[in-house]
Design goal:
This protein has nine helices and 16 strands. It is an alpha+beta fold and 334 residues long. It has two domains: 33-187, no CATH class; 195-331, Glutaredoxin, CATH 3.40.30.10. The strands form three sheets. It has a six-stranded antiparallel sheet with strand order 1-2-3-4-10-11, with helices on one face. A five-stranded antiparallel sheet has the order 5-9-8-7-6, with no helix packed on it. It has a five-stranded mixed sheet with strand order 12-14-13-15-16. β1 and β2 (63-68) form a beta hairpin. The termini are far apart.
Length: 334
């Protein structure tokens, strides 16, 4: 499975261009002179000084392949609103045609329905890290879906499953490279949070709830401990905290599994409180059950790379300090 890495460092850097060219059969769709000029002007505005050599179709609706005079390349939509720092690769799997009636586009961040998901998975037999739990989300680009592999690698796939792209969609707005498509990310996250099993969360309820926050946590994560210590303060300010057990440290999976074997939420919360203070808790598991796994699997589309990962109920990712009231301000509008 060849998946290219996105090289966008930040919204404030000029695009770092990949050097490989797409090895796909191009669809001879004509590109108008106005589209050609729009793309050239937009790339120049966002800081790409290298001249454009060619602009060609990719076989994916509205997505074009730009080759620079240096041989480097990128992908951009025909309206120049979205750019991907990657190239299109042919799906090496056996292709089973997907009926057109189940490939209809939906709003960005919406999960593909089950019939469509199964049809897409039927075209992934050569991609071993794409498993039966993989879900797909419609992006802001027509004909392109987003998914994340079993090992946490996100990728893009064409609506007919014939093409794979290893990169992220970034937004261009008024001649500026903004960064990741936050409208997509927020909608995707919001949907993903609704799929989590509440019986496998640890919930710290607020008496007079004004907001809900989801926290993916690890008992050995220093910043997780800082945030956890602040939970009573969050509850007092009307914020219900829903904890996703998400061990990332090598020593965390087993003790966290033991905590999650306790099926009473209040008792489980007390065990987590102790573990966050470094106090070893007694074993709660009488078998090999792992109540962490269901929500870890369901949370895969959140694309968590570190803990604590903090999300508002609306799907927004919190990226501020957990040591002060920044989170409260993020969650509760004045």
């Amino acid at each position: 499975m060849k998946i290219l890495s996105a090289l966008f460092v930040s919204a404030f850097t000029i695009i770092a261009i990949t050097t490989s060219l797409p090895s796909i059969a191009q669809t001879p769709t004509p590109i108008t002179a106005s589209t050609n000029q729009l793309i050239k002007d937009t790339l120049n505005q966002i800081g790409l000084s290298t001249p454009v050599h060619t602009i060609t179709p990719t076989g994916i609706d509205a997505l074009l392949h730009v080759t620079l005079t240096t041989g480097e390349s990128l992908l951009i939509t025909s309206d120049a609103r979205y750019v991907i720092n990657a190239t299109v690769e042919p799906n090496p799997s056996t292709i089973n045609p997907i009926p057109a009636n189940i490939m209809s586009d939906k709003p960005t961040g919406t999960q593909a329905d089950e019939e469509y998901r199964i049809a897409l998975l039927a075209n992934m037999d050569a991609l071993p890290l794409v498993d039966s739990d993989t879900v797909f989300f419609h992006t802001s680009i027509k004909g392109l879906l987003w998914a994340v592999a079993q090992n946490g690698t996100p990728f893009l796939v064409s609506s007919d499953a014939r093409h794979i792209i290893g990169g992220d969609v970034s937004v261009i707005d008024h001649g500026r490279l903004i960064g990741l498509d936050t409208a997509f990310e927020t909608a995707k996250n919001r949907h993903t949070l609704t799929t989590l099993d509440p019986d496998n969360l640890i919930i710290y309820p607020a008496n007079n709830e004004r907001a809900v926050v989801y926290v993916a946590t690890d008992i050995n994560c220093p910043y997780c401990k800082i945030l956890h210590k602040n939970i009573p303060n969050l509850n007092a300010k009307g914020i219900t905290v829903k904890v996703i057990g998400y061990p990332v440290y090598d020593e965390s999976p087993e003790p966290m599994r033991q905590i999650w074997c306790e099926r009473d939420n209040a008792k489980r919360a007390k065990l987590l409180d102790l573990a966050m203070k470094g106090i070893k808790t007694s074993n709660q598991c009488s078998n090999n059950d792992n109540h962490l796994l269901p929500n870890i699997t369901k949370a895969r589309p959140l694309d968590i790379i570190a803990t604590p990962a903090v999300y508002g109920n609306d799907g927004r990712l919190f990226e501020g300090s957990v040591a002060n009231d920044e989170l409260v301000k993020f969650l509760i509008s004045k």
